[in-house]
Structure formats: structure tokens, C-alpha cells
Amino acid sequence: MRLTELKQLQIDPETHAYLVISFVVLICCLIGIATRPTSYLALLWPANAALLAVFLRFPHLNLKGGWLGAFCAYLFADLLTGNQLTLTLFLTLANLISVIVSLFFIRYFNINYKYYNTGFTFIHLFGIFAFAGCLASAAFAVFTLPNIPGSFMTKEQLWVDFGLWWTGEMVNYILILPLILAFPRHKEIRHFIYNRRHKSYRLTYYLPILSVMLCVLLTHIFVGPGAMLYPLAALIWVALTYRLFSVTMINVFVVLLSYHSLAQYYLAQNEIANSSTFISIRIGLFMLALSPLILCIISQNRNELFKRVLYLANHDSLTRTMNRHFFFQEAELRLKQAKKLSFSVIMLDIDHFKRLNDQYGHHAGDGVLQQFVELVRCNLRSNDLFARIGGEEFVILLWDIDPGEAQYIAERIRDLVQKTPIYQAATKPLHITVSLGILHREAPQTQNLQYLINQADQALYRAKHLGRNQVVLAS
């Protein structure tokens, strides 16, 4: 069958969900089975956390077909390793209960899991899967599996088995769930690859990950009860340096290697594999992984909030152009750093704007300003500066440009504003014009920026005096 025919082949949503979920769960189950250091104690069982994360991130897969695919994958993976059908059936139910209960409480408390990395959403998710999903799964397992012939669980060690199952699931969820939820989308991956070609990092950028690797190595060499704390400081450094997805990957690396080192150490000390020692280790690893995730989310939220506040402080709230203070700051910095570049300053003023406000109201005037700004911005380059300095007056700094091109841009803006109607919801389309004064200079200059703007402003007033809707070059 050709590729074009495959693309035209339509699969119903239930079948699509079945195929995708069964494949994901089967691969995760086989990974978990491959990490069993003893006959039943898996070092990592990612299937349950992966299933919940996929259902959260891709709700269109949360269908009957998806659940059937997960059920079949659990059964097939466990039967493949030689378990009895009855035991396999109850193990599958215990695994699914973890996901079912977690999804129920997420919907019950109306948690917007799409914004897991904002506010306290991640803490709420952590509470649900740790104290609801994992707890329910462990309770179901210890109350059913010891009664099945050939089970690895016994009634004599009921609480130990409960603790091992519960804490093991908690570690699985804290590693796998954030990893899948934070995995970059297609657009983000393309943006990252594109930016990486143009961006270079200093050596200090890689120091946190190098420190993590060193700490994990020390955990393996000097293994003991305190080895779990070796990577803590390095993980804090990582959380304050890298993005959330990078932190989740580093978390998986640290926790799995630390768990392997500690497990080998205690097994060599003739400790029983299903003893409270491993419960303590898993709780410690869970807290070790949770700390950098929370710190990273707090740090990212703080940085995003700072960027938002800084943007609002430097831009006009109505038109989203630069405000006067930010424009002067950026323009003076360019003039100070420039060696010998030509630039142009353009002053713009919408003609008869006060009359428009009086006739149609200030709300209509605000809409005119916003649409006018979009018209102007479409005719500027990415390195040009554009600011609102008051009312209907704007200023543009065209950087590294010859006089002819600057004159052409100014005339193009004037012509476009004249020909483009401004549409308002409650009124008929409005037609406006704009007057422009332009000044061209070579940098650096002895005059300051305010003097240059005053010269362009005088040219603007001459344009107004000569009849408006024209461009006047400053003498």
C-alpha cells in the first residue's frame, strides 16, 4: 500500500485510541518487567503513570478503546512473563484502579491539569495521585492478591507489601507523569532547534548538570544511608537554571541511579528486599524528586511574572507599543553604542483625532489607535523602535537605514493609513490620515535624542501647517 493510500485510510477514534494506548502501555510494562531486581519487585513500573499522563495530555484517547487497549496490554505483558491468568487479571485491575481513581478526583476537584506548571496545580496533582490513586491501587492489591494461589503477596507481610506497592507507585508517578506532561510540543521542538543554531551557551550553563553527574557518581562510590542527599544541592541548582522538561529528565536519571546504588548496597548487606528499608528509600527518593520540580515551577512562574510586569511597565497598555521612558532608554543606548550608522527619527500624529473623539466617543478613538498601530507596525522591521509618546502622537526610530529608504517607509505608512478604513462595531467605517515629520542623521551625533525628536516634531508641525496627510523632511 502506498503512502498516499495510507494517509487516506481513516481509522475510527476508538480503534486509534486502542492502538496507541496498547502500544504505549505494553512498552512501559516491558520496561518495568525488565527492571525487576528480584522475582517481583520492579525498580521502575512506568505503565500506570504513563497511562494517566497520556490520558491527561491527549483527552481524545480517553475512550473505551483506549481503556480496552490498556487492559489488553497489561494482560499480555504479564502473561508473557509466565504469570497465571487469575493473578495477572487482578494485577491488571490494581494497575488500572490507580489511573481510574486519579482521573476521578482530578475531575471531581475540577483541576485544570493543562496548566500543571502554574500556581498550586502541580501540588494538587501530586496529592491526588499519591494519596488517592496510588493508595487505592495498593489497598486493592493487598486485599486481593494474597488470596490468589501462587501470589507473591502473603497475609503475614500485608502492611509491608502495602507500603512497598504504595511508595513504589509514588516514585513511578513523580518520575513519569511530569516527564510526559512537560514534554515539548512539536512547535516548541522546532523553535528550540531553530534557536539552538543561533544561540551558544557558556560553560557555566552546563555546570549544574555536571555537578549532578558528580554527585550521582559519589552516591555510587560512597554508598550508604546518607547517599540519597548527595545530589540535593545540585538538583536545586538545576531547578533554578533549566526548564521544567530538562529538570524532569535529570530527575529520572538521578533517582534511578541512586535507587540502583542503594538497592545493591542493602541487598549486599543481606537486607530482605521487601522490608521497610525499601519503603524508606522510596519515600526519600520521592521527596528528592519532588523538591526540584516544585522549585523549578516556582522559579519559572516567578520569571514569567517578572517578564510580564516588565513588559507592562515598558509598553503602552492600549496600543502595546513602547512607552516614552522605554523608547528613550533603548534609543539612547543604541546611539551610545553605535560607531557610524545612519538612522531616521519619524514623528507621527493622527489628523483631527480630537474631532474624532468628540464625534464618536473615546471608545472609538481607542479602537482607531489600536488599528492604526497595527498598520504602522506591519511596515516596520524587527529592529525598529516604535513608541507612543502621548495621545495620538507616536515616534519611530529607523535604525541602520539610508535616507531614501526611510522616506519611502514614511510615505508608505501615510498612503496605507489613508487608504485603509477603520472598522468599528457601532459605527460606519472611519477614514483617517496621518502627518509625519522625518529627520535623518548619522550616528554618533553630538545632539541628544530629545533634540533629534524636537527637530522631527518641528517637521511634523510643518506637515500639519501645510495641510496634513503628508511627510515633511526636517531641514
Describe the structure.
It comes from Acinetobacter wanghuae. Pfam families: GGDEF, MASE1. It is a multi-pass membrane protein. It catalyses: 2 GTP = 3',3'-c-di-GMP + 2 diphosphate. Keywords: Cell membrane, Membrane, Transmembrane, Transmembrane helix. This protein is an alpha+beta fold. The protein folds into three domains: 11-181; 187-314, no CATH class; 324-473, Reverse transcriptase/Diguanylate cyclase domain (Alpha-Beta Plaits, 2-Layer Sandwich). It is 64% helix and 8% strand. The protein has 17 helices and five strands. The chain has a five-stranded mixed sheet with strand order 2-3-1-4-5. A hairpin with a 2-residue loop joins strand 2 and strand 3 (393-399). Helix 9 packs parallel to helix 11 and helix 11 (244-268) packs antiparallel against helix 12. The protein starts with a helix and ends with a strand. 35% of the residues are buried. The model is unreliable at 1-8 (pLDDT under 50).
